[in-house]
TrEMBL record:
Name of the protein in question: Histidinol-phosphate aminotransferase
Cofactor: pyridoxal 5'-phosphate
Keyword Ligase: no
Species of provenance: Dyella acidisoli
Domain of life: Bacteria
Keyword Transferase assigned: yes
Residue ranges constituting the Aminotransferase class I/classII large domain according to the UniProt record: 47-346
Swiss-Prot/TrEMBL keywords: Amino-acid biosynthesis, Aminotransferase, Histidine biosynthesis, Pyridoxal phosphate, Transferase
Length: 363
C-alpha cells in the first residue's frame, strides 16, 4: 500500500495550476506573467515586481541541510499553519474523514479540520500531559486519515519520546498519516524524528523558523515527508506562497553568522527557562510550574485571571490558556530576554501580586 492511498482520490488525479514561473524562468526579458517591468520604490534589489519561485531552490537547500533531509522531502510554505491546512485538504474528504488530536494541544489542527468539514477526534493527554498511546490507537477508525502529535507540546511544554513516536508510527502503517509537529524542538534535548521518514513513508514532520530562528513575522514553515506526499501537497499549494522579502530574511537567518546568532539565543533561552522555572516556583500564589522543553513555561496560579490582568496593566502580555483542558488555572509565559524575565519576576513578587490581596483591596 502506498501512503498516497490514504489521500483523497480527486486530489491524486488533480491537474495542478501551472503558474507562469513554473512554466518558464531564467529568461532575460520576462513577458509571460503580466508583471510590471519596473521595480517598486524601496525594493533594494529584491525584484519584487516579479513573481517569486514557488519553492526557492536556495531556501530548500538551506533547510534540507539544517534539518538533515533531502530537498525532495521538503515543502516550504507560510508557517506550519499552511502545511497543516494543505495536509487536511489533501487527505480528508469533507463530511467523511477525520483527524486525531491530543488536547490540550495547538489549536490549528482542529481549525484546519473544521474548515474542511472533517471530523476531529480528541484523545486527551494523561494527567501529567504524557501521550496515552493505548487510548490513541483505540480511537483510530477507517475514517481517520491524519494523527497529529505535538512535541514539545504547546501549551504544556512536555515532549514525546522518540520511542513513543515510533511506536505510534508502527501502529499506524497503512492506516493514517502521522504528523509530528516539532515547532519547539530546538529548545529540547530530544532530537528530531525526521530521519524516521526513511523508514515510515506515512510519517511527516512540521518545522518552523518562527520560534528559535526569530522569523515569526516572515512566516516560513516546512513540511518534511515522503517525496510522494510532498508532490501531492505541491499539487494544491498556492501558486506563489513565499514572498521574496521573507525568503531573503530566511536565507540571512540560515547563513553561518545567522545560525551562530540563533544558537546563541537558544542557549540563553534554555538557561533562562531554568532560572524562571526555579524563581516562579517560589512566587506566592503559584501552585505549579510545569516542566517544559520549549521556550515557554505553563504556570498554575491560585488566581490566574487576576495575575493575567495585573501583568497586562503593567504592559506585560502572557498567554491565558485557561480554556484548555487540564490548564484551567494556568498562564503560559514565554521566556524572554533576561531583563524581560526579571521584570516579570519583580512584578509577580511585588506586594500587589501576592496572590491574595492587591493594593486596591481586591482579592
Amino acid at each position: 500500500m502506498s501512503v498516497l492511498d490514504l489521500a483523497r482520490p480527486e486530489i491524486r488525479t488533480l491537474q495542478p495550476y501551472s503558474s507562469a514561473r513554473m512554466e518558464a524562468g531564467g529568461g532575460q526579458i520576462m513577458l509571460n506573467a503580466n508583471e510590471s517591468a519596473w521595480e517598486p520604490a524601496g525594493d533594494v534589489g529584491l525584484g519584487c515586481n516579479r513573481y517569486p519561485d514557488p519553492q526557492p531552490v536556495a531556501l530548500l537547500q538551506a533547510l534540507a541541510s539544517l534539518y538533515g533531509v533531502r530537498r525532495e522531502q521538503l515543502f516550504v510554505g507560510r508557517g506550519s499553519d499552511e502545511a497543516i491546512d494543505l495536509l487536511v485538504r489533501a487527505f480528508c474528504r469533507a463530511g467523511q474523514d477525520a483527524i486525531v488530536i491530543q488536547p490540550p494541544t495547538f489549536g490549528m489542527y482542529a481549525v484546519g479540520a473544521r474548515i474542511q468539514d472533517a471530523g476531529v477526534i480528541e484523545v486527551p493527554l494523561a494527567e501529567d500531559f504524557s501521550l496515552d498511546i493505548s487510548a490513541l490507537l483505540a480511537a483510530i477508525t477507517p475514517a481517520v486519515k491524519l494523527v497529529f502529535l505535538c512535541t514539545p507540546n504547546n501549551p504544556s511544554g512536555k515532549s514525546i519520546s522518540r520511542v513513543d513516536v515510533e511506536r505510534v508510527a508502527q501502529a499506524l502503517a497503512g492506516r493514517a498519516l502521522l504528523v509530528v509537529d516539532e515547532a519547539y524542538i530546538e529548545f529540547s534535548d530530544q532530537a528530531s524524528v525526521a530521519d524516521l521518514i526513511e523508514h515510515y513513508e506515512h510519517l511527516a514532520v512540521l518545522r518552523t523558523l518562527s520560534k528559535a530562528w526569530a522569523l515569526a513575522g516572515a512566516r516560513i514553515g516546512s513540511l518534511i515527508a515522503n517525496p510522494e506526499v510532498i508532490g501531492l501537497i505541491r499539487r494544491i499549494m498556492p501558486p506563489y506562497p513565499l514572498p521574496l522579502p521573507c525568503v531573503a530574511a530566511a536565507l540571512a537567518a540560515l547563513s553561518p553568522s545567522g545560525q551562530d546568532a540563533a544558537r546563541e539565543h537558544i542557549a540563553i533561552v534554555r538557561e533562562q527557562r531554568a532560572v524562571m522555572r526555579d524563581a516562579l516556583a517560589g512566587v506566592a500564589g503559584v501552585r505549579e510550574v510545569l516542566p517544559s522543553d520549549a521556550n515557554f513555561l505553563a504556570v498554575r496560579f491560585d488566581d490566574a485571571g487576576a495575575v493575567y490582568q495585573r501583568l497586562l496593566q503593567a504592559g506585560i502580555v502572557v498567554r491565558d490558556v485557561r480554556r484548555y483542558p487540564k490548564l484551567q488555572d494556568a498562564l503560559r509565559i514565554t521566556v524572554g530576554t533576561p531583563a524581560e524575565n526579571q521584570r516579570v519576576l519583580a512584578l509577580l513578587n511585588s506586594p500587589a501580586m501576592d496572590g491574595r490581596v492587591f493594593a486596591d483591596g481586591s482579592a
